[in-house]
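User: Second chain of the day. Same drill as before.
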Amino acid sequence: MNILILGANGFIGSHLSETILTQTNWSVFAIDLAQDKLEKCLSHERFHFFAGDIIKQKEWVTEHIKKCDVVLPLVAIATPAAYVQNPLSVFELDFEANLAIIRQCAHYKKRIIFPSTSEVYGMCPDTEFDEETSNLVTGPIHKERWIYSTSKQLLDRVIYAYGKHHALAYTLFRPFNWYGPKLDNIFNSKPGGSRVLTQFIGNILRGEDIMLVGGGAQQRCFTYIDDGIGALIKMIENKNNLAHQQIFNVGNPLENVSIRVLAESLVELIKRYPQYASAASKTKLVTVDAAQYYGAGYQDVQLRVPAIHRASKCLDWQPRVNLATGLRKTLDFYLV
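Assistant: Same format as last time:
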């Protein structure tokens, strides 16, 4: 197969590219603005990389949608601070640019594997979020945080409609707090400038206090990247067509911990790295108001637990890496 990965230098794209090249005989055609996370791929004979912007390089994108069997549009802004501080950029890239890709996949009859998000469930009251039955609940318009969630949700609905009425071959996957090596730049010192795990690691290394929005009581199910990529490979493979026109939560419901516990765990783990032990020992956890940290348009969710029985049944998939192991692997990447 020929696989087109838009946004290959991102967290998911770079790990997926490496796994495809090492575990399959598929060829990868890839585009992104940078290539720093693709060091292990660039010289591979089955990896074909183009440095460019999917918005500006429309002819390249169209040409490669035509020549590839499966399209993964992984280009998106996915940091909560951006949803509040720059919502129109989130909409333009995450929704508008990806809508054009979806339409081309439908037109050229190409299979698309699209990254939805666990955020589409919003403030759903269910104790476990089910892909087929859980309501998708978001806040009022002035809570701009939801522009990301609703952009993704509308694309989910568009893809579903293309599938039902125009036979688009698709699979939607909803990552639940995937983490691991190459997640973000830990040296990005801007508050909220990276996702929570790398934000906290950076805070500790820079000798800063860790800011816990609302005290860090929010709980998340953290999923190690290897488990997430394992599910993605099975979706691309689509054995017995069981991933066809399906939506899959991809998360680890057994690793449901609070943001405060995550911060405390990172502090204790980093103390085991001699060169950073002193900084970790001085780190304090400080409660901060959400509006103060993110801006007035922020709204949070206390619980986000995936039901994964569909992925288990259709993909023969289960998460295998526990949080303690995953955090050690992640810290070894950044600190060793």
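DSSP finds twelve helices and 13 strands in the chain.

User: Great, on to the next one.
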